[in-house]
Amino acid sequence: MIKKRTGEIIVTNQKQNxxxxxxxxxxxxxxxxxxxxxxxxxxxxxxYMDSPLSKPLIEPFIRKNGIETSQYIMKDFRSxxxxxxxxxxxxxxxxxxxxxxxISPCDSKLSVYRIDGESVFRIKDSYYRxxxxxxxxxxxxxxxxxxCFIFRLEVDDYHRYCYIDNGTKTxxxxxxxxxxxxxxxxxxNYNIYKRNSREYTVMHTENFGDVAQIEVGAMLVGRICNRHxxxxxxxxxxxxxxxxxxxxxVLLFEKDSVIPDGDxxxxxxxGFETVVKYGEKIGIAF
Length: 286
Description:
Blueprint: E1 2-3, E2 9-10, H1 14-24, H2 27-36, H3 39-50, H4 58-65, H5 80-84, E3 101-103, E4 108-114, E5 121-123, E6 126-128, H6 130-134, H7 137-141, E7 147-152, E8 160-162, E9 167-169, E10 173-175, E11 178-179, E12 185-187, E13 190-192, E14 194-195, E15 198-205, E16 210-216, E17 224-226, E18 231-233, E19 238-242, E20 248-253, E21 258-260, H8 262-269, E22 273-276, E23 281-285
Parallel strand pairs: 1-22
Antiparallel strand pairs: 1-2, 3-23, 4-7, 4-22, 5-6, 7-20, 8-19, 9-15, 9-18, 10-15, 11-14, 12-13, 15-16, 16-20, 17-19, 21-23
């Protein structure tokens, strides 16, 4: 279940959720995914989505998902992917430039959690500790006592994301995804069926200290397209985009660096995600 910041409750796509459960939580489904995620299959589907042959998919997608095309810069898209990563009209996503305000990097459904040594987070239907996400125990320990913001994008969301503040960033670190086909691997009190491909960087921000941003791609064809490697950035500048497939952005904050907005914490505690938009305030500097 999802809440808008007005308090209105909306229901997510249950058919899509049921399909994902069949794929990821049955032996037969995971065996099918093992085939679908072979490099040759993923490359072929990716090439199709980048080609003019995929253009007939655009109009049915708009109708099925109720895309408000008036918000976007619509043009003669050369492929489905060029439509999927379409740009929004700037006035539709104003950036909050108050330096003490934390902004959302993207349109999404947001959950916010405290981080401690035992924290396990559900991300794209898989379970991760911070050290699992980063594959770096030393870096993960820096965020204990801080907050984890999980921004879940659905297929009808705007699939570009921005920098949350002024600052500089380190090089991007890419981690390849993996899928366990038959027997889940037990780790402590949770099971791993799959791990999605992901890419992260550490951002040295002016107002929120060091922040790790992780982009988590779709298991099948979803591609993470970051614009910069080592880079000096400004608040609201585009950081990157996701191609075909729903995806997720995760922000990790150190202890005593940010105070999330109260409605986000309240909704998460009650089991709700909260709808947030690219550039809007979601917290303040500590």
